Amino acid sequence: MATAPELLEPTPSSIRAMCEADVPRVFAIERRSYTFPWSANIFRDCLRVGYVCRVLTVGGALAAYGVMSMGAGEMHVLNLCVAEAQRGRGFGRRMLEHLLAQGAAAGMYDAFLEVRPSNEAALRLYRSLGFQQIGMRRGYYQAVNGREDACVLKLSLLSSGPTLT
Predict the structure, then answer these.
(1) C-alpha of 72 from chain center
(2) What are the pLDDT digits (tens) for 45-58?
(3) Burial classification of residue 146, based on how many CB atoms lie within 10 Å of its CB (0-12 exposed, 13-18 middle, 19 or more buried)
(4) Catalytic residue IDs
(5) Could you say which of 52, 78, 91, 135 would form a disulfide bridge with 152 (CB–CB 3.0 to 4.6 Å)?
């Protein structure tokens, strides 16, 4: 007899390039997810300068987004977010794996990102994909009571690790 998870159909989703028309929906998710969100203009600037900006849609609705820069053999994940109602369904992992695959395909050899130490779900995701902490940026993030540190994480894209799709 099949168990409940085996009976569930995977949710169909797709990842595509973010466009200017997505910015209001991306910004709405950002604003609901963070106390100190990026502005809509920051997302527009990322598109304008040619960063890799992607959105993940589920049934046509925007569920997640990711932004990364690449250069000098390194990629930097600048923003990765999943809409609150879509969390815990693997969309953050799927978006991150997509960004890592994009970086590897472009010849990047290392991936970097910063994350709040208080963001335990994100830290679990990053560590499960092989990211290692290589440092700490003191007072990096704005916080309600001042500043919060950032863990600096790195993943070698050249080592054998998780399959990147």
Answers:
(1) 21
(2) 999 999 999 999 99
(3) exposed
(4) 114, 126
(5) 135
